[in-house]
Amino acid sequence: MRTLAPAPETLSDHTGKPRPTSLISLTYEQARLGLAFHEAGHAVLSMAYGMHVVTSEVIAWEPQPGRWSVTGNTAWQAQNTNPWQFAAQAAAGELAHVQYLLTYGLWTPERAAACSSVHDRELAVDVLAQAGYRLGRDDVPEGGKSWGMVQGMARRRVGYLWREIRTVAHAMDEHTVLTGDEIATLTGLVNPPLQGGAA
């Protein structure tokens, strides 16, 4: 665990605002593994949907002696990705995080609520809007889908790819950062080539 906080942009959402934080009543090891599952959910579904994954990592630091914070980041490149599949990979992090709590006997309503990932939802809403698709937060807009519908899509894929997500999460917890190619090797999924050299 590092002693310095990551750069502000790592702790910000896609608009530059600080991501909300929440307290979760878990040990450091449990919380770190939970964030690894969150990022593994994003990475595995991204790759399954044909996106190039650059890296996926869990980031932990000690802001004060005896206190810790943990977050994560998955860098990807969407390459002609179906907009609804893009939204599903955005939803997958929170769902994999909650599934981790259930699977490992750690689930409580409060812990599940702390897994909420509003910044992932808002990224999906904004990216789809730029492409002309309507993603509703709490409703089904005309011609579009609701976030709940997208979560349903993601939940099925998270269940189907749970072995791969679990494998990636434990490797990420052990190594902190995994490249997309390492994730492909671990899971048997294909990491499409990076196009244009930017992620």
Task: Describe the structure in your own words.
With 199 residues, the chain is an alpha+beta fold. A three-stranded antiparallel beta sheet has the order 2-1-5. A two-stranded parallel ribbon has the order 3-4. α1 runs antiparallel to α2, α2 runs antiparallel to α4 and α2 packs across α5. The longest helix is centred in the N-terminal third of the chain and has 21 residues. The two termini are 26 Å apart. The model has no long low-confidence stretch (mean pLDDT 90).
Summarize the structure.
The protein has 7 helices and 5 strands; from the N terminus they run H-E-E-H-H-H-E-E-H-H-E-H.
- What is the residue-mean pLDDT, rounded to a whole number? 90
Helix content: 40-55%
Give the helix tally.
7
Low-confidence stretches: none
Overall, the morphology is globular
What structural class do helix, strand and pairing data support? Answer: alpha+beta
Distance between the termini: 26 Å
The largest beta-sheet arranges its strands as 2-1-5
- Topology, number of strands: 5
Order of helices and strands: HEEHHHEEHHEH
Largest sheet: 3 strands, antiparallel
Tell me the strand percentage band. 5-15%
Query: Measured on Cα atoms, how large is the radius of gyration?
Result: 16 Å
